[in-house]
Amino acid sequence: MFSRLPAAALCRSFSRRVNSRGLATASNFVNIVEVGPRDGLQNEPSVIPPEVKIELINRLGRAGMKTIEAGSFVSPKWVPQMAGTAEVVSKMEKLPDAKYQVLIPNQRGLNNLLNLLDSSPTPPVDEIAIFTAATDAFAKANTNCTIAESLERLAPVARAALDRGLPVRGYVSVVITCPYSGKVDYKKVRDVSKALLDMGCYEISLGDTVGTGTPTSVREMIEVVTGAVSVDKLAFHDTFGMGVANAIAALSCGIRTLDASIAGLGGCPYSPGATGNVATEDVLHSLTDSEYTTAGDLDALVETGFWISEKLGRANESRAGKAYRARKLRDQPKSKL
Ligand SMILES: CC(C)(COP(=O)([O-])OP(=O)([O-])OC[C@H]1O[C@@H](n2cnc3c(N)ncnc32)[C@H](O)[C@@H]1OP(=O)([O-])[O-])[C@@H](O)C(=O)NCCC(=O)NCCSC(=O)C[C@@](C)(O)CC(=O)[O-]
Fold it and tell me: Where does 29-329 sit in CATH, by number?
């Protein structure tokens, strides 16, 4: 099964193309960005010990995830759960063939990261992600400023990060619906994506933060955005039950990077009513025996999904994870149960 092979092995069988981050890509190779340790955990109500976050990142790396968002350097007053990110990234196991990124909201966050890099013998992270939104209402709720103000704030952050050799990924939230101002104008998604690319972002992740997207609306949105932005620089991120269907719709439009979160964890604290992200296990399962290939050991990810769900005392939201676990229990000899 392709999805269980390491990325390097998968890529060898395709004509190689190297993107701006140096990762080998092929026309049907899908990069999955594992956002569980950041987006997945940021909204959890109880304090998660750093050792659990570190173990989660380590397990995801060992399960073959090639891009892992390890945490964020945001204000702890806004998102208390991410307060210990410096400790987490300093102590996590950093595998040489994986990329680790952190989310940065402003110059203060970047300075905190750069101080950490300066005092670390080896860089704990490889790149940063910056974020804004397609509506002023959401940008204000999430970052206390309008879109225009956020772009003004982020431009020097991106420049400084690039000067330090840190590639920058861009997020645009609420690309379909805004929880505060309703249906989103896709032209705004296009313009904000372009502004982030002009700042030097190597890729834009389009977030259906509320999770109201359907394959039809996702295609419509991508069609408008790709009028101005090259398609291989887009990624798709989803937070609700249409995630897998929307991910497949995005792939059919040429998107080759998908954000996903182990066990379907997460969501933005400033998107009221939204449930978790599309589960990594579900995305991997949906690519099984398909025209697409990806990295990641599905068995190890299923176990990791159950492990973190148990640690958090919550239900595992991955349908595929639950089905694989049930099958394994069914197939196990009775003596081992
Ligand atoms: C942007 C700000 C900081 C503006 O917040 P603000 O209140 O306007 O900023 P401020 O400069 O007035 O700072 C407020 C306090 O925070 C401190 N502070 C300020 N910055 C930092 C920092 N970097 N690190 C540590 N501390 C910081 C600052 O020092 C001050 O402390 P005080 O003086 O009151 O003691 C705030 O709104 C913020 O941190 N927002 C982040 C919210 C967030 O993390 N949301 C979730 C991530 S986005 C997401 O999940 C969506 C995504 C990306 O996954 C895609 C999708 O699905 O849509």
Answer: 3.20.20.70
